[in-house]
Amino acid sequence: MREKAEDPATSPKKQGEFTTKAKQRDSEAKQLDGKNDDEPPPPAPDDDLPLHRPRTKEDGTPHPKAQRNFTDPESKIMPRDGTFLQAYNAQAAVDEAHQIIVAAALSNQSPDAQYFGPMLDRIVDNCNVVPDAVTADAGYFSAANVAAAERMGAEPFISVGKHCNDGTALPAAAMPKNVQTELREGMRGLLNSPRGKAIYARRKATVEPVFGQIRACRGFGHFSFRGLFKNRCEWLFVCLTHNLLKLFRAAKAAQAQQLAA
Prior knowledge:
By secondary structure, this protein is α+β, with helices and mostly antiparallel strands. It is 43% helix and 12% strand. The chain has eight helices and six strands. A two-stranded antiparallel ribbon has the order 1-2. A two-stranded antiparallel sheet has the order 3-4.
């Protein structure tokens, strides 16, 4: 459109029409990319977190199959419990002893694997210590994540499939040979060892109850705002209040033990 508007052979009337259409397309592309010149720029996001953006062509125009939610353009369609939601992906890392959230993050990419490294970095930054071991479900398994944990000095126990409540890995389903890598089979063997079963089984008493408590006990089922930055703030606030409750109860329990002694 812009080329036609600048072509001397185009009539002045048509030049105006082409210029208007070119500006409209530029505006649509900026909206799909989460940008708007009429609004102040949002605060800088967490650059280390994965970020999903709608597909565009090389010239910046939206891809024909690109989708955008008009209510909250920064949210994305994500699968959950066999259905799809317009949502954000909230992450939390929890300590084993007291169910304290030691790291939290939120972004708009659905797959979990790329959150593993940034969450490990947050754990070390917040606690000033490297965890001895780290567990994660099958959505986080990748060669890069195993290497990242080992390079940091934390032993990874990342699921390669579904597990029983006692930590035993269920038999692997039929998978292509290129997926049945040596690393995957090695992780499966580690998780099926007595030590691996015991460590991975602790997930049902650490991070999984925390999400259940936030959803069921405190009634937090959805975010209240529009936009990635505001919902990041809300998620951090939810995690903060969770930790305050845990610390209050831990302090009361310690006080009761002192009185009993």
